[in-house]
Amino acid sequence: MQSPYDPRLDSICVRIAASPLHSPILIARISRLLEEGFKSLWGSSPGVEPYAVTSGEEIEPSGCRSLLLVLATGGTEAIALEAVEEARGKGVPVLIAAQPYANSLPSLLEVKPMLEGPGASWIYLSSLDPRNSETLWVLEQGVRGLWAASRLRGSRIAAIGPPSPWLVYSRARPEDLARLGVELVQIDPLEFAGYVAKEDVPEDLGKQLLEKGEVVELADGEPARSLKVYRALKRLWRDRGLDAVSPACWWFYKEAGANACLAHSLLNDEGLVVGCEGDIPATLSMMLATYASGKPAFFANPAHIRSDSLLLAHCTAPLSMGLRIQFRRHFITGGSVTSSVWFPEGSKVTVSRLDPGLQLLRVGVGVIERGRPEREMQCESQMIVRMPGASKILEESIGNHYVATLGDSSEALRVAADLLGLRLERLGSK
Fold it and tell me: Which keywords does UniProt give here (predicted)?
């Protein structure tokens, strides 16, 4: 079953570029790799024509949300540059792929220094065998990065209320959001209160939820109160045509008698990105991370840092990230309900964050050493990550919240950063 964060393949145009002297046999092999590779990864293919374009004019990026251009041969440098220029003019991101035959890689090396600026990136497919695991991984990372960038551009993110007052630095300016093609929709908390008030929660919905884990302790009226917030956010999402939401969380507890933590956990599992506390830069980070990985993200506080170790803790982890789930009262308020998610120890995890100026994307890859809540006076879901360069999060702060997704999606985030014109900073690299 596909993740709700998987790429929409019908929005990706695929073209194969070759010199006029190209070999039909080579084009057929590339077409087969792409068709079978896409089907292996996502069960379907965007459709790959078994012929090659031989000039930039034949690319025709119109109607494409994004473009994958595979260089079949040498002599395709001008074609690639024409395609990038044409696509940039239409706001279409381009991913250029090279492969190891017919001077394809030399063409990429020649053109790569000229791809600076937003709108273009690259990958290298080391084989044309559609069963080659390394090639499939690179293709997947490239396409996910392409999808993440194209999905972010043109997106609508809603802020329900102002940022939480303690977020004195993690605030995004309208002009920076506009540079990334993101529209910020401001929603009055009183308007959302009307959504919450209208919701009725079927009794069996709460029962089905609690059957997913172990009930430790719930506040009175839970989980029904939190499920009203969950259903209201879901309806607001549909009514307003949103791509992401970041509520001012504490307002919910004061006005609605429930916080939004449980709603965050459930909605992110359903493919609806929900960030915390009105932190727009971190919510955008969450969007990129989820689209690039194809998995929901854990929006968390760095609660303890050593040289190469990081404790991430928060109350909003998606239930699907856990091997075990507990339902508890909220850590800070003692009311409402949150989920305590036990993460899979030994698993790779990708940690990332955008700076508030939306110019830098910081990315690190580590391993979950401890995935269960063990530290007192911390939020309910906790993971200790062994990650090279973790100390830089403290030494060169770009703000609070970071997001974590299971697996290594650093290459997909590298592609997305290229396409969005972001500077990529890899933790642990020199």
Answer: Carbohydrate metabolism, Isomerase
